[in-house]
Design goal:
The protein has 141 residues and is an alpha/beta fold. 42% of the residues lie in helices and 11% in strands.
Length: 141
């Protein structure tokens, strides 16, 4: 999505899997909680872990140097968007994905039953493909 804020980047539809979510700091915190970000052993215990989490959540969004969420105008007002989220996604929960999607008139959401973060295709390949292909047929047809 962020790439769409740059000139010269064009597309006809966008499918997002397991996010993005509305807010960046909770996403970064959940990555830490899920141990999806490597930390040296000395930073894994308290009180260091709490300091790392607060710092990451404060500095991480600034490091991206991007307006988030992206504006609901321009390209985002025209491009059909599909936001898919896993029912059991502990990193970017469906509620965060739904909150982001609500900003965009052309957005659709779909919760993948039984799926965790980035595992929708693995959990139900046929169902996943069906959702994506149906969306692309409506968006591009």
């Amino acid at each position: 999505m962020w790439a769409l804020t740059h000139d010269g980047f064009e597309l006809d539809a966008l499918v997002c899997d397991s996010g993005p979510g509305h807010d960046v700091p909770p996403l970064l915190r959940k990555f830490l909680e899920a141990e999806a970000l490597p930390l040296p052993a000395v930073l894994k215990g308290e009180p260091a872990r709490s300091v790392v989490a607060r710092t990451l959540c404060a500095v991480g969004p600034a490091m991206l140097r991007a307006q988030w969420p992206p504006p609901a105008t321009g390209k985002f007002a025209k491009i059909p968007l599909l936001f898919m989220s896993g029912e059991h996604d502990a990193i970017v929960p469906p509620s965060s994905v739904d909150a982001l999607a609500e900003r965009y008139a052309q957005a659709e959401t779909h919760v993948l039953p039984g799926a965790e973060h980035l595992l929708g295709l693995e959990t139900d390949p046929e169902g996943y493909a069906s959702v994506v292909l149906d969306f692309l047929e409506r968006a591009l047809g």
